[in-house]
Amino acid sequence: MTTDKNTNISGIHGSIVNTGPVSGNIANIVTLAGLNAKSNEKEELVTLFQKLEAEIKKLPDDKKDAAETLLDRLNLIIRGLERQDPDKEVVKFGIESLKKAAENVASVMPTILAIALDIASKIRTVVQL
């Protein structure tokens, strides 16, 4: 059994790969390459994902479960968007779940809710939900 924490995965499309717990940056590797949208729209979404991830990491230790939930919801949205024809039902569910999770930490980190709402608005425009 290896204890190496670095994993390099490439050339996989349309699949979910579970490499164990994620403790690094998730939004930094998102490109939304399959999403049929303008490059500036994709860049705006990725920037919002990165901002949200950065804010989630600032949550206090007693909100660790909430942080993991937020990251899970963000990953769900990203997986739905990375397809050439986005899975709108998954994306809608992910947006609503992300907003609820963000509301749960809004008293501690209101910026998380603000960014989550920005993400929802931008996705609705780009994907035409």
Count of runs of 4 or more consecutive helical residues: 4
Rg, Cα atoms, Å: 15 Å
Number of strands: 0
Mean pLDDT level: 80
The 3D shape can be described as elongated
List the helices and strands and how they pair.
Elements: H1 39-57, H2 64-81, H3 88-105, H4 110-127
Helix pairs in contact: 1-2, 1-4, 2-3, 3-4
Could you write a compact summary of the structure shown?
It contains 4 helices and no strands. With 129 residues, the chain is mostly helical.
Overview of this protein structure:
There is one protein chain. The protein contains four helices and no strands. Helix 2 runs antiparallel to helix 3 (88-105). It has helices at residues 39-57, 64-81, 88-105, 110-127. Residues 1-23 have low confidence and may be disordered. With 129 residues, it is mostly helical. Helix content is 57%, strand content 0%. The termini are far apart. The longest helix has 19 residues, at 39-57. It has a domain at 40-127. It is elongated and about 40 Å long.
